[in-house]
Design goal:
712 residues; 8 strands; elongated; disordered N terminus; alpha+beta; four-stranded antiparallel sheet
């Protein structure tokens, strides 16, 4: 009679877990597209003012994305070189999705015309006349098949005499997509394998490892299913969402296993209820802080951060649901017997009070030194070139193209100060002066504008006889490619300057450079109407990342303090939580600044994960201390004895959880994609710092502050 309820409880848990796994797995296979969707307009959400402004410019001045091919040789006047350009141009133009091509054989009459014409020289001729450009105008947003065909042609035509390099935003975007796809498949899978091996070494239970991995993977799947149903595809940040959710779920599981191991109950069902009771409260508060941290990103204008906010919010909920519905069935059947090694490792914490004091002093000094030196040197607006390894052919090719005319487009829409028309000689002189001044700026690679187009038309003998407005009419006709329509609006009171900005060697952030350029139009009787282009969007995105990091970190620190106050009822604990979270933030960010490691959009969420890890450990530790204080007579949470007792039970799962996460994310250090490398290694470093602060500094600060309070 007593056996049946026990068996039925275990069977019900196993059936429920199996059903959830099968349903979520089926939906994932049939509903989720794992291919990252990254386009040049991924920067901001469609309802943001910045995105609308850029879209309005594109609608008023039809501007196609460009793929740039730079072909280098010893002498561009060599007939063999010119024939090579002719063949390349014809083959590129034949690709579906390429609207038109411009090169020294497709546009100007001949090479001499290209060298002597203001427009073609800026567009097509590289520095020192050792190379020339082929510019392919793209009429599709399906970049993957297009870039593959371009690369095949380049591989076919490239030889020892001709070095062909590819650039342009569609090409860069496709390379980022490929790297993210490769990392998402290879290194996420590798991180799972390494984490599983770590769990097996610690717990020596195959069933526990299988259950933990399945639960974490199912939580990630559930997140992606819900995200997909909301119409959010995998993007530049959500490509790493599966790994983040895996980590969030794993943390719940490891603390659950620890409390199961420490439970004194003999009956399996009673032991499981005891485990869930003591673990769920801490998991709930840890999940809540993580949830609100991700939730704050939902209201950010930057589209990648916005999507990560939504995905992270869904993932946090999925993690705790799966951890407490799927994994208990595995735990109930498993026989957990941690090795003596893991327990001996855990006994290093709690530290003797003397060591804890010295560690705290070291952390305070480290925070001050690194913070003062590194924080002001943080770079949240790195070059697009920083997305690729310096010694790679891809980087060298992009750098060469960038160095020969710029690579990132910036759009300036201008008007006359008196709002007059721009299709006359006086306006031409004003715009030509602006053209010359912009071209002389060190940050500018090349500038294409209406006066350059007009100069091209004026090369013809008939063009020199026609008024500017008539010449514009001619250059706006389809038989001339309607080229003028890309540079002047229908009312002819606005014109656009297409500025190809240099990314290599940039030391200022983009918005600072743009602010310097913004003063130029007014010097020529003109005024800026609006600004757009990928360069501007990237600058605004970097600014948004920087602001969201500052606001997010400060908000999370304050939130952690509130949670600490709620779960403990003591201001000293709340204050200590906030100080420890601040230590982690300053040390991690200061180190990045000191080592000149850029914080790009992909690696920026790493600090949030590090803060989540420390608050997770702190919450479990604080609740354990609170329980111990109630059971020990004449002891309060200000007593070192109470924290020693709490650390006896919680340091082990905290260490194992942190080490598992560190080892798992260290796999990303092997990536060929620098942003993924930075993302993974920042978490490894931050997790290690967070563990020492949570287990060594945090308990000492509380007891020290309590003594100071008593003294005063």
């Amino acid at each position: 009679m007593t056996l049946l309820p026990k068996l039925s409880g275990r069977i019900i848990a196993a059936v429920l877990s199996t059903v959830m796994i099968m349903v979520i797995g089926f939906l994932f296979i049939n509903k989720v597209d794992l291919e990252p969707k990254i386009t040049p307009d991924f920067f901001f959400s469609s309802d943001s003012a910045i995105y609308k402004q850029d879209k309005a410019i594109q609608n008023e001045f039809p501007f196609q994305q460009q793929i740039l091919l730079n072909v280098t040789t010893d002498n561009i006047g060599n007939p063999n070189y010119i024939r090579k350009i002719q063949v390349l141009s014809n083959r590129i133009q034949s690709i579906k999705g390429i609207n038109s091509v411009q090169s020294i054989t497709h546009g100007p009459k001949n090479l001499n015309a290209a060298l002597n014409n203001p427009l073609w020289k800026r567009l097509l001729i590289g520095d020192n006349q050792k190379s020339s450009f082929i510019i392919a105008f793209v009429s599709t947003d399906q970049f993957a098949p297009l870039i593959r065909k371009v690369e095949k042609i380049v591989n076919d035509e490239q030889s020892g005499s001709y070095k062909i390099r590819i650039s342009g935003l569609p090409y860069i975007v496709e390379q980022i997509r490929r790297n993210l796809t490769n990392d998402m498949k290879t290194f996420t899978f590798g991180a799972i394998i390494v984490s599983a091996l770590m769990l097996l070494a610690v717990f020596r239970s195959v069933l526990i490892v299988i259950g933990a991995v399945i639960t974490c993977v199912i939580a990630a799947m559930l997140t992606l299913i819900i995200q997909s149903s909301m119409g959010i595809s995998i993007g530049i940040l959500t490509a790493n969402l599966g790994t983040i959710v895996f980590v969030l779920t794993l943390s719940h599981i490891i603390f659950m296993i620890s409390n199961w191991s420490n439970a004194s109950k003999d009956d399996g069902n009673a032991k499981l209820r005891h485990t869930l009771k003591y673990t769920l409260t801490a998991s709930f508060w840890a999940a809540l802080t993580t949830l609100l941290g991700f939730g704050s990103l939902i209201f950010v204008d930057a589209k990648p951060l916005n999507e990560l906010g939504v995905g992270g919010t869904v993932g946090t909920i999925s993690a705790i649901i799966c951890a407490y519905t799927i994994f208990p069935a595995f735990l109930r059947f498993a026989n957990v017997n941690p090795t003596k090694f893991t327990y001996s490792l855990a006994k290093k914490f709690p530290l003797p009070e003397l060591y804890a004091r010295r560690l705290t002093q070291f952390i305070i000094i480290m925070t001050g030194v690194i913070g003062l030196y590194g924080i002001e040197r943080i770079n949240t607006d790195p070059s697009l070139l920083s997305y690729f390894k310096n010694d790679s052919d891809l980087y060298q090719g992009l750098y060469h193209v960038d160095d020969n005319g710029g690579s990132s487009p910036l759009l300036f829409v201008i008007k006359r100060k008196d709002n007059g028309r721009l299709d006359n000689g006086a306006s031409y002189d004003q715009m030509w002066g602006m053209q010359q001044r912009l071209s002389a700026q060190p940050s500018v690679g090349s500038v294409i504008s209406l006066p350059v187009i007009m100069a091209e038309g004026n090369e013809h003998w008939l063009g020199r006889l026609l008024p500017w407005n008539i010449l514009l009419d001619i250059l706006s006709k389809p038989e001339h490619g309607a080229v003028a329509k890309s540079f002047i609006n229908t009312n002819r009171d606005k014109a656009v300057f297409i500025i190809r900005m240099n990314e290599g060697g940039r030391t200022q952030d983009r918005l600072s450079i743009i602010n310097e350029l913004k003063s130029i139009p007014s010097q020529y009787g003109l005024k800026l109407s609006s600004i757009g282009g990928a360069y501007y969007l990237q600058g605004e995105l970097a600014s948004s990342v920087s602001q969201s990091m500052i606001i997010g970190i400060l908000s999370l620190i304050a939130l952690f303090g509130i949670v600490g106050l709620i779960i403990s009822g003591q201001w000293i604990i709340a204050f200590s939580v906030m100080i420890c979270a601040s230590f982690v933030s300053i040390i991690v960010l200061g180190t990045l600044g000191a080592l000149k490691i850029p914080i790009d959009i992909i690696s920026s969420p790493a600090i949030n994960i590090c803060l989540g890890l420390i608050v997770d450990n702190i919450i479990h530790l604080t609740l354990a201390a609170k329980r111990r204080a109630k059971t020990l007579s004449n002891k309060t949470m200000s007593s070192w004895t109470v924290w020693k007792e709490a650390l006896d039970s919680q340091s082990w799962p905290a260490i194992i959880s942190t080490l598992t996460i560190m080892i798992g994310f260290s796999v990303f250090g092997l990536s060929d994609f620098p942003p993924s490398q930075r993302f993974g290694l920042e978490i490894v470093y931050g997790a290690g710092v967070a563990m020492f602060i949570a287990l060594g500094v945090y308990p000492y600060l509380i007891t020290r502050f309590s003594k100071l309070k008593t003294t005063f």
